[in-house]
Structure prediction request, 157 residues.
Amino acid sequence: MQSRMRNPVMFLPEVGQSLQALGEALFALAEKNGVPAGTLYLTYLRASQINGDSVCVDLHSRIAMAAGESVERLLAVSAWRETSNFTDAERAALGLSESITRLHNQTDPVPDEVYKEASLHYDEAALATLITGISTANLYNRLNVSTRQIVDVLSRK
Prediction:
């Protein structure tokens, strides 16, 4: 597989800088707003898995491991409903990530029960952080997938 072009933000450096600043702001605010950074990594990873973005799956997995996340939990993210590896709050965040990511094939894209479950674990500031973070991950996924950005893990060996 070959990329169609370089990532669009390479041609739009101001946009790339803005997106980088947005990501940095989200992680800086996450803990303050009651969202562990690890939870954000998990939601980003899940969105990237759903969207088929190999670059972001690789990136978020590596960053999460560097931040102390276990390989076992990262491997289980795609099957989070079928494992006991996640807290109730993380499950709520992963459910929210899936709903926000799968807008296209849902009559009620973010159902009340998904939002309500998330709101049991996160206040409005934390929900704002999660929703903005998940939306940002989806933006990156769309940039990467539409231009067929690929990760080459074999070249790292």
